[in-house]
Amino acid sequence: MEHYRSRSPISSSHSRPPAYERERGGRGRSHCENQRFRPNNQRQHQSESAAEHNPLNSRALSTRRELYERDFPVYKQPVEVGSFSLDSERRFFNDGRQMRYYVEPERNPNFDLRDGYKDRFVKRDDSVKEKLDHVLRWVVANRSKLNSRKTSASSCALDVDFVTWRGHLTKLLTTPYETKEGWMLAATKFRGTIYISEVETEAARRERENRTERHKEMMYWGYKFEQYTCADNVHGAPDPGGVVNTNEAFCTVVQTRLADHRLLFSGEVDCRDKDPGAPAPPACYVELKTSAEICTPKQRSNFHRFKLLKWWAQSFLPGVPRVVAGFRDHEGVVVSVETFHISKISQLIKNEYNCWRPTVCMNFCCDFLTFVKQTVTEDSPSVVYMFSWEPRRDVTFSVHRDSQFSFLPHWYVEEMTRRPNSHHQS
Ligand code: 0WD
Ligand code: CA
């Protein structure tokens, strides 16, 4: 099968820790300052392989890691352009009312994560597929912030190439290393912007419908840890006696650029630093995680190779600088708490044999988005290009017109088709 390669120049293959591009308009800036340290043989190999394939004829995209071992692509420092909240009944609010504040726990807190599972837990109905709806509601309410500044009369209604959830991008970043779960991503071009929304695979639906009682309870543990470490108010304290309701969410909306792809995406944020001197969002945000305690070298290695990959990808994308992890035993008791700085994770894993590399994740995502741009040519809200991937296969796509897969709601299409002036703001 053919594989697709980006036409972007492959400038060098040295590894360097991922960093955000801070300069404005830094697109043309060389990111090869350390070129003299670059191993030449790899560059040679990659240039040849890039020349062998004609991207314009590509119907599939390879996910083989070795194809993405090149220089780290430009990834601009993500900028928060807004936020929204979902309340206990999953209602949308164009504000930060669900923001929570991180309260640092003891190093060995003995939190009981099983507490309240039976009697103080309201679980979101995950058979309800919300698709991009909340993000689109935010776009409609904040349209003026996003309108193209240079060419207000251009065909591009929004000043971005892609709109999606952060979680979908996380899946793309981890794809070259994923061996178990495939994905389906639906893409629709509307007024020059491509919207990407996940579709649940058959395998994922079966998994969801056949979860064991133990698995369901363990899914609660992560939310319970949040309750032990978050306060609703800046001067407040956590309330472990309260109800855990997974309908509630605070989501950041960030804008950034990956190579020549302008991205707008939203991600759920667990909490923020409560210090008034903390940096502005997203740098003040804290991601909370739970994980099984690490007792053996094998467990440590698996933690580095699999868990830290997912944690890194999820937080690196929106520029969340740290993850606070609660390590729990088999009974769901948090025995220790540790902070991981996203910028230090690549150092932490560097001695791990055959481990993941941030540059592979970012280059694959970048090439996937290029592939999507080349494929998704028809600009119509009811046309869906379905990109599908299964482990050990290439990414392929199929086209669907006016099908069950169409995901841009009528209210969104109508609102965005109106002239900007006729838009009444609340
Ligand atoms: O319906 C779907 N297939 C999806 C819905 C897939 C992915 C996301 N979502 C929606 C949900 O409405 C959720 O509120 O996106 C929101 C979160 O978006 P995200 O930040 O892009 O998603 P992700 O990075 O995968 O997850 C962040 C957090 C999770 O925390 P952990 O620490 O476990 O990664 O969002 C929560 C969860 O707490 N979360 C969800 N909440 C409700 N429904 C879902 C979901 N399907 N997925 C993750
Ligand atoms: Ca979390």
Task: Summarize this structure as a short list of keywords or feature phrases.
426 residues, alpha/beta, seven-stranded mixed sheet, 26% helix, 23% strand, disordered N terminus, binds ligand 0WD, binds calcium ion, RAI1-like_fam, RNA binding
Task: Describe it.
By secondary structure, the protein is of the alpha/beta class. The chain has one domain (61-143, 156-417). It is 26% helix and 23% strand. The chain contains ten helices and 18 strands. The chain has helices at residues 40-51, 133-141, 143-146, 166-174, 202-209, 213-229, 297-316, 345-348, 358-375, 410-417; strands spanning 79-86, 92-93, 101-102, 111-112, 121-122, 162-165, 183-190, 193-199, 230-231, 244-245, 249-258, 261-268, 271-273, 285-292, 322-328, 333-341, 383-389, 396-401. The strands form three sheets. A nine-stranded mixed beta sheet has the order 2-1-11-12-6-8-7-17-18. Strand 14, helix 7 (297-316) and strand 15 form a beta-alpha-beta unit. Helix 4 (166-174) crosses helix 9 (358-375). The N and C termini lie far apart (52 Å). Mean pLDDT is 88; it is low at 1-15 and 23-52. Bound molecules: ligand 0WD and calcium ion. The site of ligand 0WD has 16 residues, from helix 4 and strand 12.
